[in-house]
Target: Pectinesterase
Amino acid sequence: MATTLKGISLIFISILAALIAARFIVPNSAYPRSPIASKLIPFEIGSCCRRRHHHHHNRHDDKKEKVSICDNFRHDLVPPATNATSVFCVDHNGCCNFTTVQAAVDAVETLSQKRNIIWINQGIYFEKVMVPKTKQNITFQGQGFESTAIVYNDNANSSHGTFYSGSVQVFSNNFIAKNISFMNVAPMPGPGVVGAQAVAMRISGDQAAFWGCGFFGAQDTLHDDRGRHYFKECFIQGSIDFIFGNGKSLYEDCQLMSIANPVQPGQRIINGAITAHGRVSIDEDSGFSFVNCSIGGTGRTWLGRAWRPFSRVVYAFTSMTDIIAPEGWNDLNDPTRDQSIFYGEYKCSGAGANATMRVPYAQILNDTQAASFLNASFINADLWLQPL
Model:
């Protein structure tokens, strides 16, 4: 992806500041206007709050043509409906049929056999979105993951459980998302805080694909719950277990960004984990495979920890910075899991890929062992994944 890790690392904070400022802060806000925030909120902070001053106008002024915010809306960007597709246009300024994403989802025909494209104009959509099992074949089409975002702020406490905290929750099959971000802006939890897990996206349907998407949060950002999923050129940010669940998923060319607190040189603390895979038994066909990805950010983190006894995660051709702890993996202090979990690395690079101090149960895979994890056949993509 063209966007650098350094530039992307500011997006979450910038969007959070922009979101708060746009909704709650008066014009003399202390929050800076970053280029990213300007893209997401294409108006000046506080412009909605300024009092209008009444002046005497002459007759000329009264005859001036009124200008609508929708005058410059590019309707030609919205794809036309076809025999095989239905299109639902969403714009928070009211320039489309819908002003919220949830309203567009609700309008999709139940058990529709068409591809239902929900075209979402750039902007921040502060709402909680749920796609039920009966609303299949839906596509969320954003205008860029830096300029289109669905944002909410539930956490495990406020939503009665981590699984229900997702800003977006998808239970239907054949879901696609393109060029859009999913964010949870609940406060980042401090050490020992209970109930602060905050999911940005929960994907629980089968045969889902995410192209050029962003996932922003802290603890438990992406709930890759169950089913076969494909992530291509996505940006995924978090601190603890920020990709978790029991899905069978392939992550290709993705950027994984830790925002755990920086660890000072010489300190031996671990304060982050990228994955927490939840495979319960050897009979379950699930696992996470990361191919041609990059890992960066702050903190000192594990590649994964064993949320369930048969957790399965592989990293291949992935570059890792020195934020990765030398031991690499964690069994959640349950040595009985060491014989059943499958944690593999294959031809990875960077300071964090040094395997000399890896835990004994970590595997440095050979060509034969790695082969089944390296491409889309891992998720049976030939049966369902459509090219972009």
The two ends are 15 Å apart (CA to CA). Residues 11-24 form the longest helix (14 residues).
